[in-house]
Design goal:
The protein has two domains: 18-107 and 195-232, 3-Layer(aba) Sandwich (D-Maltodextrin-Binding Protein, domain 2), CATH 3.40.190.10; 111-191, 3-Layer(aba) Sandwich (D-Maltodextrin-Binding Protein, domain 2), CATH 3.40.190. It is 32% helix and 21% strand. It contains eight helices and 13 strands. The protein has helices spanning 47-58, 73-78, 93-96, 134-142, 152-160, 171-180, 206-222, 224-232, and strands spanning 24-28, 31-32, 36-38, 44-45, 63-67, 84-85, 100-101, 111-115, 126-130, 145-149, 166-170, 185-191, 200-201. The chain has a five-stranded mixed β-sheet with strand order 5-1-6-13-7. The chain has a five-stranded mixed β-sheet with strand order 10-9-11-8-12, sandwiched between helices. A hairpin with a 5-residue loop joins strand 3 (36-38) and strand 4 (44-45). Mean pLDDT is 91; it is low at 5-15.
Length: 238
């Protein structure tokens, strides 16, 4: 549940209402397992694919999926390239100045350090993080040397090839990286960053937000959201 540091100007023109369209377009990164990723068939997959499809079904919406790079995911929502962000995005006050959010669909996911050595100095070493995330902001304030990369996979590669001493990312993403890289290990203590994860929606789309809020609340009430969270191991349950 990365939290993007927003630099988008608030003067960007808002796009038209999604509810006036036949199709609601769900925008995701497709590069952050287990939250969202592209499977072998070339389709969006993961926790948020399953969740998004179920929320659209409950809200009686005809939805389609599109992918967008993380660093421009909010500007492209505002400009109308899609109608919803569902991409492991934490709800923050800073972001809420530019877009609206649904109710959170997962509690906060802690951030975790990973390295190939357990004696790495996390306070003065070189730490990798994805560009535009609150993890990058946190590292920059610790006194460590921050190196930023455009994609999550590049942060892991930087540690594996010795370009960085450690990486800081969501715990759920680090777990997938540990499975794929046998020499990688968790180091240090987890860091509490950001809030719960919600769907990002243009400020003008209040009707759409209300529909998704109702669907999220219904999934919390009947236990199906916790079942899905447990299946994909993305965070703690409600």
């Amino acid at each position: 549940m990365r939290t993007l540091i927003i630099t988008l100007a608030t003067t960007v023109a808002m796009a038209g209402s999604a509810m006036a369209q036949d199709v609601v377009r769900l925008g995701t990164e497709g590069a952050y397992p287990p939250w969202n990723f592209i499977n072998d068939a070339g389709a969006v997959d993961g926790f948020e694919r399953e969740l998004g499809d179920e929320l659209c079904k409950r809200a009686s919406l005809n939805c389609e999926w599109v992918t967008n790079e993380w660093d421009s995911i909010i500007p492209n929502l505002v400009s109308g390239n899609y109608d919803v962000i569902i991409a492991g995005m934490s709800i923050t006050d800073e972001r809420d100045e530019v877009i609206d959010f649904t109710a959170a669909y997962t509690p906060p996911d802690p951030s975790t350090f990973a390295a190939v050595s357990d004696d790495v100095d996390l306070t003065s070493g070189v730490i990798a993080a994805q560009t535009g995330t609150i993890q990058a902001g946190y590292v920059a304030e610790t006194g460590a040397t921050l190196v930023e990369f455009a994609t999550p996979d590049e942060t892991i590669a930087a540690v594996m090839n010795g370009e960085a001493d450690a990486v800081l990312a969501d715990d759920s993403f680090i777990k997938t990286a540990l499975e794929a890289n046998g020499d990688l290990q968790v180091v240090g203590d987890p860091v509490a960053l950001g809030g719960g994860v919600g769907m990002g929606i243009r400020e003008s789309d209040t009707e759409l937000r209300t529909k998704f809020d109702a669907a999220i609340d219904a999934m919390k009430a009947d236990g199906s959201l916790n079942t899905m969270i447990e299946k994909w191991e993305v965070s703690s349950k409600w």
